[in-house]
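Researcher: We're teaching a course module on how sequence relates to structure. For the next exercise, students receive a sequence and then see the predicted structure as tokens, so they can try to spot secondary structure elements on their own. Here is the exercise chain.
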Amino acid sequence: MNNPSLLLFLLSFGHLCTDIVQGALPALLPFLKDRFSLSYTVTGTLLLAAHLTSSAIQPLFGYATDRKPFPFLLPLGCLVSGVGIALVPFSPGFSWLIALVMFTGLGTAAFHPEGFKATACIASVKRASGMSLFSVGGNLGFAIGGPAAIFLVSRHGLPGAAALLVPAAAAGALFLPALPHIRRKIAAVAARPPAQSGNGVERPLYAVSLIVLIVIFRSWTQLGLATYIPFLYRAELSNNPDFVATLLFLFLGAGTVGTLVGGPLADRIGHRKLLFFSLVLQAPLIHLFLVSAGWLVFALAAAIGATIVSTFSVTIVMAQELFPRRMATAAGTIAGFAIGTGGIGVTLLGAVADRYGVLAAIHLINGLPVLGALLALLLPLPWKQEGGSIR
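Model: And here is the predicted structure for the students to work with:
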């Protein structure tokens, strides 16, 4: 268990099991909307409650674990998120429903900062590549969560979603024997003298502010599409749920490929370049998705998912490079904004959908990557300088 590759794999697996919950919640919204007779706007507040909880608390967990490592947050976060989603189908009323989705957000907030920090410490030099491996677990979990929720509910009713507790509990159990080894890896990195940041950025607060804004637009794009694709294909959701489940899986699952490619590519060509070009590609791909039909819809959904998620681990690493002694806080802030502000975006899009229709809300998403790309151009240079070449 002391093997770095094995530890990274375990962290990635724990990330997968935790983010299954995040992927499942948007897919459950149409069923929860019907059960509680909610409007699109109010339905969006369910994601807002879960994600704002995580957004607000995640940086605090990061700050705490930067001061004193607490690897037990890894199994605890898995278990809390799993218990929360398992209880959601049994909510006796809307107030309980809000409380339980917030409980899932608490589990997410506990797991991610410690997970990102442990990964950075174990991966060492090839941090973007290591972070990609960790993020692959989250991307795959997010991809599995939606189709799994649809599969369980379509066959066993809303209470069937309680089975989502099983993978979270399994991951929590597997973490327990690995905790001493993870603690030692973190302690070894903390004992090293502070190193100078090699990215050449002299205004870290300005740079990290831009990164946060880019992450907000990226999060609104990803979660907005994940939430409204089931509503866009509402007829198929009733008559052919496998169609929507497959579409969601391709959209979210392709992020796994994007992450695997994105991390090593960022190490090679530079973080800022990858961030900019991924954002530029998203707008035309989303437009083509909305006007296409047949097999092309599935291919474009996969291409969009891969492009959006390809920079997730990269933005985490960029923030950690700016604050090398506050890696968990930096990761918690970026991941927290990625999760929390996505809920805000979905709620705002819900208001648009109530007034103008679901298609109008999805078309509005199309402009968000453009704003992100413009912000990426403002990131200070050189971001990273290695071997004499500016990246």
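Model: If you want an answer key for the exercise: Residues 40 and 167 are 30 Å apart (CA to CA). The domain at 4-390 is CATH 1.20.1250.20 (Growth Hormone; Chain: A;).
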